[in-house]
Design the sequence.
């Protein structure tokens, strides 16, 4: 076991200053090199869980260990990619990827590492471009290269393709799958897209909401590339949809009751 998420509870205070359960008794063990999707309706606590593993948010109770060490703060071993690329607009592509590396290595090493991962995301020819000259998909690839260049063992991705159009998203799925196979990183990937989670992951953690709990831990046994196995993909999609629908209905009916 590489990542151990043990009895995690998280409460936030609501407007009346009352604690509200966001995550309740989350237990997960993740092996090194696994590609895990955390799937669930909006607001179920997916980002909160990812941020706890990142060390950006403290759990109310429970412990996360990565490679035997308790997570108390962010670390170089865990790279983050968010929905928005958050690049520095005044730095070009190469400088953006090099930025976090400068404190860790010589300039030459930083250039080499940045170039290696920019080539991996197929942006080797765009090193001199500035963020505003790139499409959303390209910006997101720069962010992925920036996270990878630090060579973290784990990549934490929070809806990284959520703001992109369907075609770009599909292309990036292929690239991410290739990168994952080449680098053997452990990936935790937050999404609310059932098809995205089936396309990419070894395991899908399906979360229910209010409070966020693990509803199901599904091992995806469909061979890769998954688009060649449409029937199996469709069956799994329907299976997940059937019980996620109950969760979504629960949220909607509670909202209507307010
Ligand atoms: P998801 O990623 O599944 O959409 P989040 O983890 O972002 O869900 O949020 C889960 C719930 O926690 C939401 O109801 C959200 O409003 C609430 N929440 C998130 N962060 C905070 C915070 N800092 N303070 C209070 N409530 C929060």
Sequence:
């Amino acid at each position: 076991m590489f990542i151990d998420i043990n009895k995690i509870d998280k409460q936030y205070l609501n407007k009346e200053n009352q604690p509200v359960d966001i995550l309740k008794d989350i237990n997960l063990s993740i092996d090194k090199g696994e590609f895990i999707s955390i799937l669930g309706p909006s607001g179920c606590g997916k980002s909160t869980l990812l941020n706890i593993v990142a060390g950006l948010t403290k759990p109310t109770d429970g412990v996360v260990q990565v490679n035997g060490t308790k997570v108390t703060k962010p670390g170089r071993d865990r790279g983050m990619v968010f929905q928005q690329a958050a690049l520095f607009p005044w730095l070009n592509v190469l400088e953006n990827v090099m930025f976090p590396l400068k404190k860790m290595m010589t300039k030459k090493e930083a250039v080499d590492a940045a170039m290696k991962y920019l080539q991996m995301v197929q942006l080797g020819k765009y090193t001199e471009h500035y963020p505003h000259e790139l499409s959303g998909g390209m910006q997101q690839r720069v962010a992925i290269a920036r996270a990878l260049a630090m060579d973290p063992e784990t990549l934490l991705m929070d809806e990284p393709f959520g703001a992109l159009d369907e075609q770009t998203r599909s292309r990036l799925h292929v690239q991410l799958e290739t990168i994952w196979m080449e680098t053997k990183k452990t990936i935790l990937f937050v999404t609310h897209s059932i098809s995205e989670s089936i396309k990419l992951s070894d395991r899908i953690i399906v979360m229910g909401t209010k409070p966020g709990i693990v509803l199901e831990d599904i091992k995806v046994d469909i061979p890769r590339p998954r688009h060649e196995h449409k029937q199996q993909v469709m069956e799994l999609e329907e299976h997940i949809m059937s019980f996620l629908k109950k969760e979504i209905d629960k949220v909607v009916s509670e909202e209507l009751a307010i």
About this structure: Residues 54 and 199 are 24 Å apart (CA to CA). The domain at 3-77+152-257 is CATH 3.40.50.300 (Rossmann fold). DSSP finds seven helices and ten strands in the chain.
